[in-house]
Amino acid sequence: xxxxxxxxxxxxxxxxxxxxxxxxxxxxxxxxxxxxxxxxxxxxxxxxxxxxxxxxxxxxxxxxxxxxxxxxxxxxxxxxxxxxxxxxxxxxxxxxxxxxxxxxxxx
Length: 107
Fold this sequence. Notes:
- The protein has helices at 16-20, 67-76, 92-95; strands at 3-5, 26-28, 33-35, 55-57.
- The chain has 107 residues and is of the alpha+beta class.
- Strand 2 (26-28) and strand 3 (33-35) form a beta hairpin.
């Protein structure tokens, strides 16, 4: 089992999770992070660090977010690793309250 970053991360891109990851499994896109399922060791450390509750165990991804499991795998193969915490986008707090953001995902 691996962990999956879901829709809540889009346009928020808080990187608190990156700080606690012992294996550097996060990948950074223009406005979202994903988890490389081949690198994730299922440690759960990232889950409580996400301020928008965007990270789920693969078996616990909500039904409406199931597409993000494949999307994490796909984008992790394309995006570079992120190994240090960065400042969130200036409008991240505003986007944290928005639902249904998939159309805003930048590849």
